[in-house]
Structure formats: structure tokens, C-alpha cells
Amino acid sequence: MESIEYAFSPEGKIGKFMRQEMNLTMVVDDTIYAHAGVFPEHVAEGVDKLNERARQLLLDTPSVEELYQLYLNNITHPIFTDEIFLGNKSALDNKYLSDYPESEMCSVLEETLKLTNTKRMIVGHTVQFYGKINTKCNNKLILIDVGISRCIGGGFYGYVEILNDKKEIWARYLKHN
Predict the structure, then answer these.
(1) What confidence tens digit (pLDDT) does each residue in 73-97 have?
(2) Among the ranges 56-60, 73-77, 109-113, which has the highest mean pLDDT value?
(3) Range of the domain at 68
(4) Chain centroid to CA 105: how far?
(5) Pairing state between β 134-136 and 120-123
(6) What's the CATH code of the domain at 23?
(7) What global pTM score does this model have?
(8) Considering its fold, how many domains does the chain have in total?
(9) How do beta strands 31-34 and 25-28 pair?
(10) Do 32 and 47 touch, CB atoms closer than 8 A?
(11) Helices in the chain by DSSP H: which ranges?
């Protein structure tokens, strides 16, 4: 466990990579990609600003042991309070876009797409039934978590293929293990 904690720490190989290189979200062509989804308030100043803010929060996050010491002294770190990482509309741990009725969330999605000048959002985080990719809001939200991990009863494999030149999007599936 200690080696895993170190690998994900600010000094560890994975921790450094995640904090310095990875983006919370990104736009490729006319599609925005996010782990659990992003919301208008996240991208009001642009996707780059969101990524910069998330990266700074992660870079300023101390080790697990230091976080624990802060906790013992009743000091809260922003990694536990910032809306990007925590809450109903966090970019990492919300199920609003995937679980709420379209009548409630499609307008929020539309606003996000407008602010990011994109046509669709692709998200993971919420495992879809039977290992199938699903869509909502007239195919503008694509839910791609097919349940690869066997620890959740998955073992499904699939991906989305976007052919912009042909204006086609395909759900592709590989053999279930």
C-alpha cells in the first residue's frame, strides 16, 4: 500500500504525471471529453482555465500523510472542498448528466456545449448496463463507461469511433471476457 501511495503522491511517477501533464477535460475537434462531465460554471472562462485551476489544486495538494495531519488539526484542504473535485456537479464524481432525466439536464449540457463551442460531450464514470455505450439529449451526450473492470461485474470492452469526415459516430465492441 505504501508503494501505491508513493506512486500517486506529488513526488511519485504517477502523481507527477497526473499533476503536471494530464488535463481534467479537453476538446478535440467538436467534442469535449470529461471523466464525469463538466458544467457551464466550470467552463465559463474556458477549458484551458478549468484545466489550469485543476492542475494548480493538484500541484498544491500535499502527501496523504500531510493531508491526514491537516485533518487531525481540523484544517480543510481545497482538494476536499473545491467544486471541481467535490459536490453534485464535480467534474470527477457526479452522476448528474448520466442519471438525471433529460428534461432536467439537457439544457445544462446545451449551455456547456455552447460555451465550449462543441457538438457533443463524451463522459465515463457511470457504468452503463450490459456493457453498452448509451446516449442522451439527441446523441449530444455519449456515456462510454462500458464496465471494463471485473470488480464491478464488468469485463466488457468497447469504444467510440468518431469519423468527422463522414459525419458518423460508431459504438464499437470487442469480445466480452
Answers:
(1) 998 888 888 888 887 788 888 888 8
(2) 109-113
(3) 2-174
(4) 17
(5) unpaired
(6) 3.60.21.10
(7) 0.85
(8) 1
(9) antiparallel
(10) yes
(11) 2-8, 13-20, 40-43, 47-59, 64-72, 96-99, 102-116
Within 8 A by CB and 6+ apart from 5, the residues are 63, 64
For 16-40, the pLDDT digits (tens) are 898 888 899 999 999 999 999 999 9
Distances (CA, A) of 171 to 39, 75, 158, 166: 25, 46, 7, 15
User: Which residues, at least 6 apart from 174, have a Cβ–Cβ distance to it below 8 Å?
Assistant: 157, 158
d(CA 60, CA 66): 12
Cα–Cα distance measured from residue 79 to residue 67, given in angstroms and rounded to the nearest whole number:
10
Grid cell at residue 87: 459536490
Whose cell is 455552447? That residue is 114
Q: What is the pLDDT of residues 126-147, one digit of tens each?
A: 888 888 899 999 999 999 988 8
Residue 141 Cα to chain centre, angstroms: 13
